[in-house]
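Board notes (copied after class):
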Amino acid sequence: MPVTSVVKDPEALTMTVVADFAASRARLWEAYTDPRQIEKFWGPPQWPATFLRHDVFPGGRSHYVMTGPDGTVSGGYWEFLSVDPGRRFEVRDGFADAEGNENEAMPSMHMVFEFEDTEGGSRLTTVTRFGSAEQLEQLLEMGMEQGMKAAMGQIDDVLADLTSFAASRPAESQILNDTQVRISRVIRGSVEQVWRAHHDPELMKRWMLGPDGWTMPVCEVADAVGESYRYEWAPDGGGEGFGFVGEVLEIDPPRRVVTTEQMIGLDGDPAVNELTFLPSGDHTLLILVVTYPSREVRDMVLGTGMVGGMETSYARLEAEVLGG
């Protein structure tokens, strides 16, 4: 069990949990800041978590849901107040509905996560500050302390897994729920470089091509909320092409952009793409969460081989644009 001490201070309205790990501080930080990894231990074993969003930067937000053995779903959020990469982050933690909206009927907490080196590996100190003595008592009665201990008891297996999240792995998809899919890829380049490669038309035309044999004759980029984009591809030598249009809903360069996406010529509601760029050492962890109008549309799109085409593009991005 990694937890070495739990100290509750009713006067200061705090609970401090200290846990020690054999892994390095950098590896521990990675486990907490990569949504693919934190969801493997954040929920207690009987209540596994799924992170639908995990923006580890000041002003960013996380949204997760935990599913109980009977199918009951409990949601939560983190609002990132400060981030010192590799060493510390500070959040407002609370309960949320299925869409990630705060449940104001329930208390929120202030949490600080401190990561430090030790002789044997690393240490995580988590300080939770409650709004009142009543809140502290209420959340402890709900099993917060036991839940944190149970969650941390699962971290060692994640830290020991050095292959599932390696930079050498291709783009991978994970179905999050009936309408959402998460696609992940570590790109060999800085966040600023990878962001620019996704927003510079001349660079995009060099790598965002999917399988060999295609060109991108139309690349109209949108850089502000409310602006529209248009991308079109055509096969070498002529023939029928395809394309997408959409609108920017949110943008926070160089970390996050949310857009709609509609295939040209098709009716129906658009998909929503949430694209996040997070530092991962010297590389960038690219996370794309796509929300489709229905389960049927989700399955149809995945069945086209979309993820394989994305991997071909990302490999081209590293080799031909970023020089990886």
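Comment from the instructor: The chain has a mean pLDDT of 93. The domain at 172-321 is CATH 3.30.530.20 (Alpha-D-Glucose-1,6-Bisphosphate; Chain A, domain 4).
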